[in-house]
Design goal:
Length: 156
């Protein structure tokens, strides 16, 4: 049973790694979209990323369930306490989890850069809007309104 659960956990981890790679690629695309200020495309990318993150969350829930079952069955606190000689697949699982952690680190770094770029873009937009409002105020202050009256020259 433990061996089967570890095999399932490997499968789930491979799926998670694949989804995280997709998220990473979308995040790289997001970086370009932010630079080019294409807000419509940004929304689409974020929507795709949300769906993938939901899939990752589902995979994590299933993984944790299996992980807890293995810990209870084997009466250990961690995978590090399991005998690698008895469960050779643990090496594969640890390698995949290592890959996942690397991808997550890269993703966190790229997301941080994207957030900073988005903040800078938002600040530029705020500044532009402030200038537009100032121009509108100045225009209103110096312009005149026509009252609709007509001047009639009565001299002949």
């Amino acid at each position: 049973m433990t061996g089967e659960n570890i095999s399932k956990m490997i499968r789930l981890s491979v799926d998670k790694r694949d989804r995280l790679k997709e998220i990473f690629n979308l995040t790289k695309d997001q970086e370009e979209v932010i630079k080019e200020d294409r807000t419509e495309d940004l929304g689409k990318l974020l929507s795709k990323k949300d769906k993938l993150m939901e899939m990752v969350d589902d995979l994590d829930r299933e993984f944790i369930s299996l992980y807890e079952a293995v810990k209870v069955k084997e009466q250990v606190d961690s995978f590090y306490d399991l005998d690698v000689k008895k469960y050779g697949q643990l090496r594969d699982l640890k390698d995949i989890v290592g890959d996942i952690n690397k991808i997550l680190d890269q993703l966190a770094s790229l997301d941080k850069r994207n957030i900073e770029s988005m903040k800078a873009s938002l600040d530029r937009t705020k500044s532009d809007l402030k200038q537009v409002k100032e121009v509108q105020r100045a225009y209103k202050g110096y312009s005149y309104e026509e009252s609709g009256s007509i001047l009639i020259d009565e001299k002949k």
